[in-house]
Amino acid sequence: MARVAFTGNLKRHVAAPETRAEGESVGAVLENVFAANPRLRGYVLDDQGRIRRHVNVWVNGSRATLASAVTADDEIYVFQALSGG
């Protein structure tokens, strides 16, 4: 199962503990995470099911999309970007 971690900024708003989930793509893994933690979905995905504009997902240090393939040994990091001046 892929390891999924969320940044502290996201954890300020909703419980988002590091977890492991199955799936062959980032989207499938995240769907399994959301099944166990439904409130988290709205912080990561928009109403159309796309990654929110100010959220970035990385797999093993490379930027990823929901369609990006993953294996059981991969590490997925979900970052909520900060903005402002």
Note down, in words, how this protein is organized.
This protein is α+β, with helices and mostly antiparallel strands. Helix content is 26%, strand content 25%. It contains three helices and five strands; from the N terminus they run βαβααβββ. It has a five-stranded mixed beta sheet with strand order 2-1-5-3-4. A hairpin with a 2-residue loop joins strand 3 and strand 4 (62-63). Helix 2 (26-36) crosses helix 3 (38-44). The radius of gyration is 12 Å and the shape is globular. 21% of the residues are buried.
Brief descriptors of the model:
single chain; 85 residues; alpha+beta; five-stranded mixed sheet; 3 helices; 5 strands; 26% helix; globular
